[in-house]
Automatic annotation (TrEMBL):
Organism whose genome encodes this protein: Asanoa ferruginea
Superkingdom classification of source: Bacteria
Assigned keywords, A-Z: Coiled coil
Protein name: SEC-C motif-containing protein
Residue runs in coiled coils: 189-216
Pfam families reported for this sequence: SEC-C (PF02810)
Amino acid sequence: MTTASLLDGDALELIAGQAVDRGDPAAGAAEIVAIVDEGRLADPTDSAIALSLAAELLLEADDAAGSLALTERAIAAHRAQGSPPDFALIFRARLMFLLDRPDEAMAELVPLRPLLTEDPDAASAIANALFAGDRGEVAHEWLTEAVAEAQAAVPETEPEDDADQLPTLIFFALLSERHEVRHELGLPHDQLDEMAEALEEAVEDEQRAELEAELSRPVLFFPEAEFDELSRRLPDLARICGPTWDEHRTDLERVLTARAAEGVPVDLRLVHGSAADLAAFVEGRDVADDVIDLYVDELEGRAAGVSWPPARNDACWCGSGAKYKKCCLPRSRD
Ligand SMILES: [Zn+2]
Ligand SMILES: [Zn+2]
């Protein structure tokens, strides 16, 4: 592939995450800066974002001065390509505080304060900057004023259009940041904090329900004869599911074992697919990765599936005839 050396935003995030995981954020910053300097970004207008990401990594490595130099570059890159440098400016203010230049930091932040009621990401960025300068009280004052303004802008009835959700998102962001700041400052709960906590709980419940639904989706299993047939009729899909039958059952055993380890109550099941059935299903569709997901959804409607795991001494789910403990169970541990 000719674009193999060109990197997108996700690839940069991955590099950053890996560097943090191995405890060397500075190396991640250096790697990202090299990517920018060597022109290896798939989209050159990502350079401002890339430099900001590198600046965050250097701050994590306790190198505020190095982080400031990269932030200056990020701000210049934003200006060169005509994108707003606001968040890089907020980050610069945070660094100024850390570098003991509080007057410059405040001079930077004050004109950015209106952003609190314009962008849902501004609340935490600005509060972080102010806390870096030990100005929790100022953060509290700004957020309290902004949250009132934002609440007034929330429409009475829920808008149908996603684009009209912005006032609500801004209000929630301010509400929850203010709640956090008040805890930080040791202030007692007020009415807005009660609302913030109720909202946070509702969001958590929704996320838990989504996770449970995702983990409870059955996995698609092809018995050996069906898998062989699939390899003949739809080799591309067999490759996605395998590529060999042994790999297919090992994958499924591992996926199900990982889901069981998530610690949420889930109904783990396998549904049996057949090659002829899948061939009929893909007819007239694009054979892409998600065709398997669509097929599982459709199968789920008409087949109950088989519960997983079997008891250790029962016949294995894969249909080999061997006991589970001697067949697929150990495959998850290789
Ligand atoms: Zn609370
Ligand atoms: Zn088995």
